[in-house]
Structures are given as structure tokens and as C-alpha cells.
Structure to design on (262 residues):
């Protein structure tokens, strides 16, 4: 009798393990979609332990009705040209196993939280999608979660982990920073203290003098405005010059930041 029970339990354990293996998470996909900036997508492949990040190529589709009138292109036209359209930009990394597991654990925790609420008019949408080896897909969307909520804290940790993994990919770095704006009020990022290199993301004129006061002293400061969309003359340069005698600017060629006034 004992032998019979042992056999039954053994067979049950095999079936349970087999079912568990079938339902194991194969891929986790994390989407970050801010309203006013380009978003990004991260895909974790549990088989290969590879992480793929992608950012969309920004373009719009219009159908010209006349010189002054247009409408959105219909789906039939879109289907016929889809393979010729600009493709998303992809980045791939195979991190250390501990780094992969750290990010996977954060996203697993996020996927287990309750997602509720209605889509806001603007803000940021966070979507997490899990795919099992049985091709079952579970999906949750968090609409502008509070930064101090459980899901907000996990999302911030996700950004930090991704930024570390892809620290040499500038276009993705900008996309991550543009999502982080919705969860913190950081005015700048100090990328180096020797030399002093500071990347500015925003300018709150009421707070910036105090924030710049926290920067270390240096004769020269390198100011990166490549992900900054305001006019430096609003208050940034004036306050910087109170502390630094030499300012070296790093700029996007498509912006003038107040350098082109007549």
C-alpha cells in the first residue's frame, strides 16, 4: 500500500513539474509611453537571457485630400506599405545572470500588482506583458501611477536597472530620462565631477539656484543640453555664471537654446 501511494505521489510530482515548466514565463515585455515624449520597450527573454530595448522611429501618416486638407491614412494603405516604413531602433544586451534576475524580479512583482483606473488625458502609461511557453499572454496597464505607490517605486527601479544595462546607448538614455520626468523632479544629472559634466533635463527657475548650489565647485563646467528643450536664457545661464567662470556647452545642432538671438 505504501509503495502504491509513493508511486502515485511520484507521478503527481512529475505531472506538476511538467505543467509548471509549460506555464513558466518565457518573455516579459515592459512598455513606457509618456504623453509628450517618445517612449520605449524592453523585452526580457528567459530562454536566451537576452534583453532587447527598442524605441520607435517617430513619423506620422497622412492622406492628402487637397493643398490645405489632410486625413489619417486608411488601414488598407498602411498594410500595403508597412514593410517599407522606418523601423524602430533596437539595442541588445546579454547581462550578467544576477542583473537579468534583478530586473526580472522587479517586473514580476510589478505584473502581480492590481492595475486600475481610467486612461488620463495626458501623463504616462506603463504596460507590462507576460508570455508563457504555452503562448498565454497576461497584460496590465498602469495609468500615470503615483511615484510613491508600490507600482510607482517598482517602475522607478525598472528605469534605474535599464539605464545601467544600456548606459552607453544615448538615444535610449534620452528615452528613459523622458519617462523618468513623470516620476521625479530632477533638474540635472551629474555625469562626471572630473571634469564637471552636468546634463540638464529641465529648469524650474524658482528652484534652480538652490539646485546649482549643490553642484561641486570647478573653474569649468560642461553643460549638456542635448535632452533639454527650453531657452537657456530664461534663467539657466544667468545662474550658472554666478558660480562658474567658464561654461562649455554641449548642444543639439537642431536647437539654438537662445544662442541665435539678434
Amino acid at each position: 500500500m505504501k509503495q502504491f501511494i509513493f508511486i502515485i505521489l511520484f507521478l503527481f510530482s512529475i505531472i506538476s513539474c511538467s505543467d509548471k515548466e509549460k506555464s513558466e514565463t518565457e518573455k516579459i515585455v515592459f512598455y513606457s509611453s509618456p504623453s509628450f515624449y517618445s517612449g520605449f520597450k524592453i523585452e526580457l527573454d528567459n530562454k536566451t537571457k537576452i534583453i532587447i530595448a527598442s524605441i520607435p522611429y517617430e513619423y506620422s501618416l497622412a492622406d492628402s485630400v487637397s493643398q490645405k486638407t489632410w486625413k489619417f491614412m486608411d488601414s488598407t494603405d498602411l498594410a500595403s506599405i508597412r514593410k517599407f516604413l522606418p523601423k524602430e531602433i533596437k539595442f541588445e544586451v546579454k547581462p550578467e545572470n544576477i542583473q537579468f534576475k534583478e530586473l526580472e524580479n522587479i517586473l514580476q512583482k510589478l505584473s502581480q500588482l492590481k492595475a486600475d483606473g481610467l486612461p488620463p488625458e495626458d501623463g504616462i502609461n506603463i504596460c507590462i506583458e507576460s508570455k508563457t511557453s504555452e503562448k498565454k499572454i497576461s497584460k496590465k496597464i498602469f495609468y500615470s501611477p503615483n511615484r510613491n505607490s508600490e507600482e510607482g517605486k517598482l517602475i522607478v527601479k525598472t528605469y534605474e536597472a535599464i539605464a545601467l544595462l544600456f548606459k552607453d546607448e544615448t538615444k535610449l538614455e534620452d528615452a528613459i530620462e523622458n519617462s523618468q520626468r513623470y516620476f521625479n523632479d530632477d533638474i540635472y544629472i551629474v555625469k562626471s565631477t572630473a571634469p564637471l559634466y552636468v546634463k540638464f533635463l529641465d529648469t524650474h527657475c524658482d528652484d534652480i539656484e538652490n539646485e546649482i548650489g549643490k553642484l561641486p565647485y570647478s573653474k569649468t563646467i560642461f553643460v549638456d543640453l542635448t535632452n533639454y528643450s527650453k531657452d537657456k536664457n530664461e534663467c539657466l545661464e544667468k545662474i550658472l555664471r554666478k558660480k562658474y567662470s567658464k561654461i562649455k556647452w554641449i548642444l543639439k545642432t537642431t536647437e539654438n537654446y537662445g544662442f541665435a538671438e539678434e
User: Anything to note?
Assistant: Confidence is low (pLDDT under 50) at residues 4-12, 14-22. The CA atoms of residues 27 and 217 lie 47 Å apart.
